[in-house]
Fold this sequence. Notes:
By secondary structure, the chain is mainly β. The protein has one domain (about 5-129): Elongation Factor Tu (Ef-tu), domain 3, CATH 2.40.30. The protein has no helices and 8 strands. The chain has strands at about 10-15, 15, 20-35, 45-60, 75-80, 90-105, 115-120, 125-129. Strand 6 and strand 7 (about 115-120) form a beta hairpin. It starts with 9 loop residues before the first strand and ends with a strand.
Amino acid sequence: MGVHIGNTGIVKVGANTVAEVHGWTLETSAVAVTTTNLAAAWETRITGSKDWKASIEVAWDETDTTGQEVLIEGASVTIGLYPEGGGAGATYHTGAAIVERRGMTVSRNNTTMISLDLVGDGALTTTTV
């Protein structure tokens, strides 16, 4: 299948599935290092280091002691981001990360939400279950 719908996605901390995930994002980047000399009319570049970061949005569940409650600011974790679920043959992204920020949003007539920002600590691997 070439197209996927977001409601099959999951997030794992180590082997544990995080409860009440409402969404997540993953961004990868590479630094473009300029190699241009002073006399050149056009910029030239080479690829420098790579980086990745992720954001996760969950409905707060304090009983999720092996998922949400592990993702506290400063924690070093192994995160798994599964865009198409965890079934056999599903693609996922995994890597070591540091929880950089944890925020809580409480508003009238809405679910209490936790937002998490993680930064990669080394390579991000894309593989299949």
